[in-house]
Design brief:
The chain is an alpha+beta fold and 107 residues long. The protein has a domain at 13-79: 30s Ribosomal Protein S19, Chain A. Helices cover 27% and strands 13% of the residues. The protein contains 2 helices and 3 strands. It has a 3-stranded mixed β-sheet, covered by helices on one side. A hairpin with a 4-residue loop joins β2 and β3 (56-60). It starts with 12 loop residues before the first helix and ends with a helix. It comes from Candidatus Nealsonbacteria bacterium CG11_big_fil_rev_8_21_14_0_20_39_9.
Length: 107
């Protein structure tokens, strides 16, 4: 649920202090744990290291991201894959077809 419009966007003052005095497009990564922080126009061009619970993921802020949260661009879970015996059989068939195509192309 979005934050109330009368309250305004949530951007901690500590994060804004880190931005002040720095130029956008700098190669420096600004580390933050504030995933719920709303991206404001002042943040455009900066690269943030957003913590996903294990490591910091680099997020370069563009104009399209304004109004969204920083955490939306740093996923906390990694999709491994759907699995099981049937999935392995499908993958082996695909691999066999690829090897056959490579052999035909080599001839």
């Amino acid at each position: 649920m979005p934050r109330s419009l009368k309250k305004g966007p949530y951007t901690p003052e500590k994060l804004l202090k880190k931005i002040r005095g720095k130029k956008p497009d700098a190669r420096e990564v600004i580390k933050t744990w504030c995933r719920g922080c709303t991206i404001t126009p002042e943040m455009v061009g900066f690269t943030f290291g957003v913590h996903n619970g294990k490591e910091f993921l680099s997020v370069k802020v563009t104009e399209n991201m304004v109004g969204h949260k920083l955490g939306e661009f740093a996923p906390t879970t990694r999709f491994s894959r759907h699995g099981g015996r049937m999935q392995r059989e499908i993958e082996t068939k695909v691999a066999e077809k690829e090897t056959e195509q490579i052999k035909k192309a080599a001839e």
